[in-house]
Structure to design on (391 residues):
């Protein structure tokens, strides 16, 4: 990670795509039924504090990522043990997201293909991306963020005829506890996972503080999640959402405006693929970076293939 | 299926291993080969149908024993 510099703008875009990740499709804060949108707002405000902490940690030790900081602050041995725990977290997260994508692919898109093959090709692409380095991923995502934003906005605009604000009522019907449970789950699930970025960002150019990067990404990503949750609740209603697997896909299949604008599920698939690609790439960057730092090497690229081979396996057989 | 996995892994090891051996950094070579052999054993075991314990159950047990069962 020594010579790879990503600009601040690319950092913001990477965090946005990471947060949108798999939440775009699955929905967030489901425990809070029709108040999921309030839960997301509470989660965003709590995670502002969390991300300010991460940016402060990174600013205090310029040019180093979390694994170096842990070894400096706690000594080599304890630092390596805790680094192993963080690597385990990033690994597990990547495997879960890949598993999500494989289930989506095998249920909705390629129902008759064994799920091995699309995932094998995606894994090979991610290995290639890892060997190219994070700079390439940053530049790639700078282009593809526009597609994601455009599709999110278009889908929301096309669904305006199907929206019914009465599905949001009664507000706070079940009281405060379900709302707080939903906001806790929303806080952990997309927003708390950005800790992976502390393991990846060691060189953002020309900045002394990462505040703008982290907070900008959080607010844009959080805004899109809020929009998606609000739109799903208002179009489908909370009971339907708790029963189906992929709310956004169902919502998009309801668009029917004339002969051209119908059956647009492919847009959701494209967005999901872009976001999941970024999410799994970043998680695997963190794992490879971590493993090479725990064993004392400067270079992380050679560990890409075995680690991804190991991460790809649990999708198929274990519920990892 | 099991032969296909072994062949794929051997191809990967051949391509990447020769590149690493030329660099003559013994630490990297050892780490790479140990990781890939670990990954290969787990793939082969899974393709033969051996039931490996899932780590998510282990994590669930640890978290429940610390925080207690709620929900």
């Amino acid at each position: 990670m020594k010579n790879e510099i990503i600009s601040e703008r690319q950092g913001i875009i990477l965090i946005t795509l990471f947060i949108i990740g798999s939440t775009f499709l699955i929905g967030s804060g489901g425990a809070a039924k029709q108040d999921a949108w309030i839960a997301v707002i509470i989660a965003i405000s709590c995670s502002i504090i969390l991300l300010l902490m991460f940016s402060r940690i990174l600013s205090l030790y310029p040019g180093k990522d979390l694994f170096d900081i842990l070894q400096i602050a706690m000594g080599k041995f304890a630092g390596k043990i805790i680094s192993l725990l963080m690597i385990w977290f990033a690994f597990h997260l990547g495997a879960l997201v890949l598993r999500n994508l494989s289930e989506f692919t095998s249920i909705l898109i390629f129902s008759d293909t064994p799920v091995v093959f699309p995932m094998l090709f995606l894994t090979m692409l991610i290995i290639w991306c890892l060997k190219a380095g994070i700079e390439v991923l940053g530049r790639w995502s700078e282009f593809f963020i526009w597609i994601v934003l455009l599709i999110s906005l278009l889908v929301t605009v096309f669904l305006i005829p199907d929206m019914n604000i009465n599905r949001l009522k009664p507000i706070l019907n079940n009281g405060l506890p379900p709302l707080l449970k939903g906001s806790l789950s929303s806080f952990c699930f997309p927003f708390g996972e950005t800790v992976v970025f502390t393991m990846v960002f060691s060189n953002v150019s020309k900045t002394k503080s990462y505040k703008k990067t982290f907070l900008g990404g959080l607010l844009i990503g959080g805004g899109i999640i809020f929009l998606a949750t609000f739109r799903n609740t208002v179009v489908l209603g909370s009971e339907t959402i708790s029963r189906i697997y992929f709310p956004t896909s169902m919502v998009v299949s309801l668009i029917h405006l004339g002969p051209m604008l119908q059956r647009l599920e492919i847009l959701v698939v494209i967005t999901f693929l872009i976001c999941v690609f970024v999410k799994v790439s970043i998680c695997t960057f963190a794992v490879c970076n971590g493993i090479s730092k725990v064993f004392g090497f400067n270079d992380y690229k050679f560990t890409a293939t075995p680690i991804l081979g190991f991460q790809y396996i649990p999708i198929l057989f274990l519920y990892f | 299926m099991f032969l296909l996995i072994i062949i794929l892994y051997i191809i990967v090891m051949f391509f990447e291993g020769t590149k690493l051996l030329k660099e003559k950094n013994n630490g990297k070579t050892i780490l790479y080969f140990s990781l890939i052999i670990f990954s290969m054993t787990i793939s082969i075991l899974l393709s033969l149908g051996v039931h490996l314990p899932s780590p998510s159950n282990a994590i669930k047990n640890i978290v429940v024993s610390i925080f207690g069962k709620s929900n």
User: Anything to note?
Assistant: The first helix of chain A runs from residue 8 to 20. Residues 21 and 152 of chain A are 13 Å apart (CA to CA).
